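Hypothesis: this fold can be encoded by more than one sequence.
Test: take the structure tokens below, design a sequence, compare later.
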């Protein structure tokens, strides 16, 4: 499967993990609802920093959409200089996505780890880190993916990659279960299930479909 990078501007990480086909989760921007309102009077210095961080996150997203990843990285590093959360978490995450896109795996992993130090349950960063280390540190990737599907049982692509990682370790029965859960959550993923597991995954999907019509 070819991994891909796409752009997104919301905060529903769990939803993205469920629906982002088989590639990385996208660049993230903040939620405008979290920007302090100025309706009641002048902004405090902290509110100004938060608004500036949000504006830089949005600028970085726009630069990323235009394939200006160098400019986007500069914007996200400016966010870090402001030292505002949750903007810092998202800036580190986005720097990880850009590094992963550029095949700078060590930089990507370091950036995701920074984001996860701020929020250990940040699903988008967990998911992308798991994909990043799936080949080199398979056991760790399995642990991360199990954490994700434990928090979100409908995270279809996380189940898919969990199945792939388990298959690499020769844990075929567990892999079969993971692939079955993946296609139950998203039937379109059946085409991405390895051929040797496709019949069992298809059977799991059929059983689910029959159960819902009874």
């Amino acid at each position: 499967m070819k991994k891909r990078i796409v752009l997104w501007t919301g905060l529903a990480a769990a939803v993205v993990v469920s629906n982002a086909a088989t590639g990385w989760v996208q660049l993230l921007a903040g939620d405008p609802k979290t920007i302090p309102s100025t309706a009641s009077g002048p902004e405090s210095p902290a509110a100004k920093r938060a608004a500036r961080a949000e504006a830089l996150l949005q600028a970085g997203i726009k630069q990323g959409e235009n394939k200006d990843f160098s400019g986007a990285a500069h914007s996200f590093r400016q966010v870090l200089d402001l030292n505002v959360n949750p903007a810092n978490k998202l800036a580190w995450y986005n720097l990880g996505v850009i590094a992963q896109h550029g095949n700078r795996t060590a930089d990507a992993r370091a950036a995701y780890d920074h984001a996860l130090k701020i929020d250990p349950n940040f699903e988008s960063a967990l998911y992308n880190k798991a994909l990043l280390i799936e080949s080199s540190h398979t056991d760790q990737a399995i642990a991360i993916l199990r954490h994700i599907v434990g928090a979100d049982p409908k995270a279809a692509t996380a189940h898919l990659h969990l199945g792939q990682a388990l298959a690499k370790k020769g844990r075929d029965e567990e892999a079969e279960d993971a692939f079955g859960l993946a296609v139950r959550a998203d039937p379109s993923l059946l085409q991405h299930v390895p051929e040797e597991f496709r019949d069992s995954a298809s059977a799991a999907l059929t059983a689910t479909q029959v159960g819902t019509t009874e």
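Residues 1-22, 32-41 have pLDDT under 50 and may be disordered. The radius of gyration is 19 Å.
Hypothesis status: open.
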